[in-house]
Amino acid sequence: MLMSKKEIQNIDLKNFNEGDAQSFLIDVIHKFSQDIIAAETTSDIFHVLVNDVAKQMALKDCVLYKVNREIKQIEQIATYRENKFEDGQIKNALTLNFGEGHAGLVAETGSSLLIKDVSKSKNYKFDVSMAGSELVIPVKINDEVYAVISSEHPEPYFYTEYHLKLWDVIASIATGALVKIHKKEELVKIQHRLEDLLDKQSEDLDKAIEMLSDQFAKLKQYREKQETLMQEIHHRVTNNLQIISSILRLYMSKDTVESVNTLNAIHNRVQVMALIHQNIYKTMESGMVGLNSYMSDLLNYLKSTTSRFVIGTGYEVEINFLSIDVLVSFGLYITEVFYMWVDLADQHGLEAIELRFEVLKTKDERSFEINIYDQSKIALFENVDFHSTDEMGCILISALTDQLEGELSYTYENQNRIRLTIMS
């Protein structure tokens, strides 16, 4: 039957036979191992070792030294000795170097010491009162001495091998508990560091969100002002173009036929400019204009301005978007070539023409080309020189070609074809 802690107290191992001693050791280990394992802090474990175990074993003295490996010293941090306490603190806590005294020697070697008669030991270090025998046990973690337990007794030969075995086992149990507590404490430290890091990151994130919100509010306000300004500009430009168009129509209703034709040509070009401006306004946010819808609007308008004969148009577009800078010159170029084609077809007595418009990519990724061609059996542009004539349409086409930084060419092989290659 296992003994209680009260029964364990005041038992002298020297009077036990081997069987009784073994039974006693098992009882002591059972009683105190549960307390050690249940300890939640390092101080709790030290208290069990120095106070509970020593008290229940009826020891006169028990001191625990904490090892500082960096400076190779040990220092008393816990004790079971009444005359070592003063106001709850260890009085004159002893500090030893590695190798100094029995405790310092154990800290250095990591091996337990059983000194049955300290008077015969040259390493004995006097503390409070003269000892007769001493037992010194290391507490190790990862094969390194973490603490040293020293118990002195005034009688020589008081401590036996059974004391040594008992303390070795208890120290081993304490090691396991200390490792568990250290891991828990390390996890708590990591948790605190992570919490601090999260708090810092959360604080930084809040600042970033606040800064971005302020920037977004400013950008939104700026954009609203810009949109208001663009709307105002659009309305003014539209109104001005309408006024110009109305004035031209007024003159056309009162002037000669030749003047009317001239004014009508000017009026048509004003309307093309208005159409270009309208497409630009619709896509002003991106700075790029969708070419497919623009070509459709432009060709439909150009056909509506000519009623002398039937004009059919078709187009193919491989370029999805054009920048605003290119679009204006592009639209005016298409317009001038269209009207020149119509005039030449009329001069050659044609009753209908079918025009095809292509905006195609080239093998050179840095350029694209505009092809305009028909299926006419007459070389309409055979006598046209775009670069040296004084005819207004040729001057405009040549000027727009230069503005687009393009190369213009004309060929006729059963169809009239004008090609303009533009560096994109």
From TrEMBL:
EC number: 2.7.13.3
Top-rank taxon: Bacteria
GO molecular function: ATP binding; protein histidine kinase activity
A UniProt-annotated Pfam family: HisKA_2
Reactions the enzyme catalyzes: ATP + protein L-histidine = ADP + protein N-phospho-L-histidine
Domain GAF: 41-188
Protein name: histidine kinase
Species of origin: Brumimicrobium salinarum
